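To assess whether the prediction recovers the assembly geometry, we first specified each molecular entity separately, as shown.
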Amino acid sequence: MTTEYETHDHDVLIIGAGGAGLRAALGALAQGANVGVVCKSLLGKAHTVMAEGGIAAAMGNVDAADNWRTHFRDTMRGGKFLNDWRMAQIHAQEAPERVHELEQWGALFDRTKDGEILQRAFGGHTFRRLAHVGDRTGLEMIRTLQDRGVQMGIDVYMECTISRLLKDGDRVAGAFGYWREQGRFVLFRAKSIVLATGGIGKAYKITSNSWEYTGDGMALAYNAGAELKDMEFVQFHPTGMVWPPGVQGLLVTEAVRGEGGILRNKLGERFMEKYDPKRMELSTRDVVARSIYTEVREGRGTEHGGAYLDISHKPAEYVKKKLPSMYHQFKELADVDITKGPMEVGPTCHYMMGGIRVEAETAQSSVPGLFAAGEAAAGLHGANRLGGNSLSDLLVFGRRAGLAAADHAKTVQNTPLDPAQIEAAARELLAPFERKEGENPYTIHRDLQDVMQNLVGIFRTREDLTRAMAELGKLKARAEHLSVEGSRMFNPGWHLAQDLKSMLTVSEAVTRSALAREESRGAHSRIDYPAFDATWGTKNNIIARAGNTMTLRQSPVREMPSELKELVADEK
Amino acid sequence: MAEANFEIFRGNNDGGQSVTYRVPIAPGMVVLDALHHIQAHHAPDLAVRWNCKAGKCGSCSAEVNGRPRLTCKTRMDALPLDKPITVQPMKSFPIIKDLVTDVSWNYRVNKKIPPFTPRPGVKWKMYQEDVDRVQEFRKCIECFLCQNVCHVLREHEQMEQFGGPRFFVRVAGLEMHPLDSKSRTKMLKDELGIGLCNITKCCTEVCPEEIHITDNAIIPLKERVVDEFYDPLLMLVRKIRGAKESG
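The predicted structure of the complete assembly is given in tokenized form:
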């Protein structure tokens, strides 16, 4: 077989066009690199657009006492000290400048009375820290970055899926994939590649994530020989919609609680008093999600199996101004007027703390020339992410990945790529068309979501996780025999067959890591090991590929310098 | 369980036909849920764009019973179920396949618009009352429903001469930004053809973000164009004082 494909050359190829990918593109462009950006959707539709609450940055516009040290401490504590301290430090130090930069590129944040960028309270943050635009901060951010990128001259390959990274010796040297529209193949040769593909939510049944969130970047990196880290830490956002069924899992922004929203069970009890009397509704996400789940499990849930979240004690105009999309979302999709009565909410799979293991300063993975930023990368958030720290993560480490990728590109040349690797990638993509009478990818996807939701969810046990491993094995075997109907023209069934491979890989990594960590920490709760374990507190789980086998090992958490230890140690 | 019949366009730009599918109805279901059901159970290759399923990304635009809508926000219980529900691709754009259209023209128009250009040495202070009106424009999720219904594009296909409501909203957001220094009025007149709009407000009616496109964006921009290019007195004053740099 001789595969037909088009070829594009770039210094830096960025896979993913959300906040991290676009910020990486701008970083690389600023270094004079020739940049290509590949994305599965149309430009501007990436999941960043869904981010609601805000960008965490210690600017001190509202609470003057705020500074990077407090932000650092909040992040480390929220992450239960599994975070890479250096990433947390860089993040806290650089976030304010990244926010100001957005403003200078045209973003319009809500304002304080003095004309500064307004900041709001969020769970786990000591001070009011989130720069925001009502509850559509992500839209503002992606539009600003997108317009800037287009203006500066990035080449964007929209609706294009990458299925394989190609290597030249040890280093990454290209990527192979297909145009979703026509199904034609495409080869990118690049000196550096940045993975900014987001998370894995679509492996779960109840999720706030869009179809794109299938763990592609993590699977691509894993297959190319890079390491994955902290994969057991999947964030369940405490507040997703629970009713009606079609919108189950849809995000209800933490800004509702940031603006004063109160959680109650069906008995009218403000149950957070039991679980975190100090921080109440603004406790960290892991705690609030577990609290709601526990209330429901113990029979105090609402009609549709959630908790009540109420903001109707605030003036109706204020709610509409600060939470406009929540107001519309509930009014239009659930017939609930949130200015008059409570919402019903429950946990929804929202974010992946784990991901590609990267170096703090450069965002480079263990494969030369391969970088990762944003949700696809691991390290900043440790065992639990604070709300608002994702958008700032995208900006800070997106930029750093772009700069480092451009620097790296100066040291190598684009080379002809191994035809055997290309042929293998093409064959793999076409295989589902050649098999007849195989299973439909949608069925396998649905079963995968059930397994992950029921056996690798908020509360975990060895028994469930062991069963999940067995189920995943069966699903993998089924996926190897699936077939797709129709042609290569914009064929969602075929697209899903490809995405499913990524989901199966990351699901196995999540389950394997969760099984190994015999303790409860942050977003990882083991019923059979309900407490912190001091030894596990010093270890990160690392996943890597050895031949066709997924391996797991532990690596020591990097030790903090003494001045940072002091920062996080005072008052418990 | 109640069921509904869907008549969905299957085909491409060379032609196609409506195909009927039966879909069970669940409480609170939206049209996009039905499309997903059809993909999973009847037609795995049915081409549909979507992302957030929450009315925030503007990907799932289509024409439901002849009305341009976001399918993720179109509730089944708001549609009559005694006859089939028709779902067609947006009419103003070339069809790629089924409900997916080629919207690349919009991205080409966007590229022409000069970006936000702050005044040199500007102090980064802005007050809420000054940004309120611009924030309305920045709510746009680029669903392109306004472009789809605008008769200048839909009936007259003036893609080369006209930018369409989406991009008037975008330009309004730049022109009314408190710290922007560039004028885009010449471009509005010459390249984006704002004069072709005869303010029938079709765009405003379909905007899922409820942006007052005609009243708050297009009309003020038209006034700026008139002031700058058709008001003899102002033209004279400008000539004497020296006009703002025009992009």
